[in-house]
Amino acid sequence: MLCGSVRAIPQSLTWECEAAYRSGGGSIKFLMPRVGLVVPDATNIWLPLCRSDTAKGPCFTVELKPKQADKARSWLLEPGRASFKARFSRIQITRAATAGGKPQPAPEVYYEAIFSGDPKGMQRAIEASLNHQTGPVVNFFLDGTRMSPREHPGVAGVVTAALVREPILRRLRVAQQALDCLDIDGVTIALAAPQLVGLDIDVLLGCQPRTMKLSPHAEVAASMCRCPPGLLAVTTVKAREARRNLMIATLFKLSPQELLELLCVWLVALTLDDISVIVSTTRLTGPTKLRRQLPNLAGVLRTKENELHAYTVAIVDTGPKPTSKIKSKAEKEPKMIAHAKLALKGPERSPGSEAGLFWDSTLCKA
After folding, report:
1. Non-local CB neighbours of 163 within 8 Å, separated by 6+ positions
2. 306, 298, 208, 330: which is closest to 258 by C-alpha?
3. pLDDT for 192-201, tens place per residue?
């Protein structure tokens, strides 16, 4: 993965995201609030150092999968699933529905810690997941060779410091939350809209430019569909259904093109929920100035142990999801939720609880 070709979100879209992030959402071309994901790709070629920088020792590379640990935030949730989705995060639901199909996962609290911005919590999560590499950390490399990090205990601190210095995780979470305004339940509603009946959705979506902006009507609909954090869980069933019916009526008033725009945005959100963040670092000797990463220059940070490290942060796996994902996920959702409900039934039980106890004991021993 680190040596192969890397697909990327079109540069024009990333720069529109960057402009929106810097302007607080006021970019003319891209209207999503404070979204920006511009990070140089350093997975194939190590970014150059300054002439005064002298590397000492090997290059460590850590791959993280920062899956979103938020609960659903759309008013379009199907009534029979709304309370359940308001209680459990998507990553919990997916893991519960596919229990046994993957290695013992990390508890959700570690995914939340990665996005928290709190250095102590981030380092604790990275230290724990480095030893298991089933999430958020999924790979550790030493000079390009995958291996166990047990003999390199300082890696977690350096990776944490790099992620704190660079804004990639903040921007990623904002993007995930802003773009997933429909939820898969809303996607199902959009696909059933009279305007799209009889049309070949895959072909039409394939013709849509991924760098387009939302039209005014589509942007208004997206804004109305977004639910503030935590509000779904405290809203009565009657109020949720009333708001949902209003949102459905709003979607059914959109043109076919405007509905396609919203579906495209949801596909981008799906991509952002599956990207990898790559952090590469090597120790430096000799005096050098601290700096943030630049497009053509590695960053430099100082650890608590007063060591200097050069670092680069990159994102990979950003290729757009195929349009076929829309229908396939819409068709699988009822079965997915039914399986998850069975796995998660009980007042306090949640998937990964046993894993959480195992990981916590591991941390206590560390």
Report:
1. 114, 122, 169, 277, 279, 313
2. 208
3. 999 999 999 8
